[in-house]
Amino acid sequence: MASITTFRVGHCTHPSCMVLKGSGLASRCFPSRAYLIETRAGLYLWDTGYAEHFRAATAKGVYRLYAWVTPISFEAHESLQGQLRAHGVSPKDIHTLLLSHFHADHIAGLRDFPAARLMCSQAGWDAVRSLSGFAAVRQAFVPELLPNDIADRLGFVEGVPETALPAALHPFTTGRDVSGTGEIYIVALPGHAVGHLGAFVLQDSGWTLLASDAAWVPESFQQLRGPSELSFIVQHQRAPYYDTLQRLHQLHQSGNAQIRITHEDTPDYVAVAGRP
Ligand SMILES: [Zn+2]
């Protein structure tokens, strides 16, 4: 069985009503998470959260817009590689870094894992690979965050055959076993970004769905309450977004899997000295 360790790697703030309709203008904190998944096939990471590279890459040109629209907080002691080292894991120990999508707050630490194999959706990669300037910022994509050799290290989940998931995970019926051990199944969670992915992980305690940005707050899938309509300026497509949210809601109601989302404001992560 796999085990998941959750790291909080920086955060940003937004008005609540942007992420949950009708919830007012009060500012809400959105931590960025990275998950270490230990499997029989090796160590996997699910996303990276923020990193120092984000500050440098958004300090110039049109990319300053990103930092202006999304004020972030990231302290040196929150760096993912530092937190992993404190946990006894060196960046070179990571077998595969799985990318849910290419928004900057999920990939900012890629350059800190120069030896890891990278895996994402081919559709997601094709949608961003040639973007730069304003077209990139509009999609929350900052090209400078990508390692120079990314094309050589990138594999696509579409290359892994789809197999049936246990009936208990209904309405999710198929996934791609990227671990090859039945411990991590990748599923498409369309709507938030092109090629946006989630992962079912099997631990001793049962199934967990790492649902990335399919919702920004747990109330969304618990109560079927979507985000502000304005959010669809940056999100990919409204209809598939709500279809995905409906499936998360059904899974939540079944009680057969825990659902974790990247930006939920819950203290489920490893404690770091110096953080309140
Ligand atoms: Zn995103």
**Portion of residues within helices:** 10-25%
What's the total helix number?
10
Mean pLDDT across residues: 94
Give the class from helix and strand content and strand pairing: alpha/beta
The number of E-state strands comes to 13
Question: What portion of residues belong to β-strands?
Answer: 25-35%
Ligand kinds: zinc ion
Distance between the termini: 32 Å
Order of the strands making up the biggest sheet:
4-1-2-3-5-6-7
* Low-pLDDT segments: none
Shape designation: globular
**Biggest sheet details:** 7 strands, mixed
The radius of gyration over CA amounts to: 17 Å
Order of helices and strands: EHEEHHEHEHEHHHEEEEEEHHE
Please explain how this structure is put together.
This protein has 276 residues and is of the alpha/beta class. The protein has helices at 16-19, 52-57, 64-69, 80-86, 104-107, 122-128, 133-138, 150-153, 218-223, 238-254; strands at residues 3-15, 27-39, 42-46, 72-73, 94-98, 117-120, 154-156, 162-164, 174-177, 184-188, 197-203, 206-210, 257-260. A 7-stranded mixed sheet has the order 4-1-2-3-5-6-7. A 6-stranded mixed sheet has the order 8-9-10-11-12-13. A hairpin with a 6-residue loop joins strand 9 and strand 10 (184-188). It binds zinc ion.
Question: Which short descriptors sum up this protein?
Answer:
alpha/beta, 276 residues, 26% strand, 6-stranded mixed beta sheet, binds zinc ion
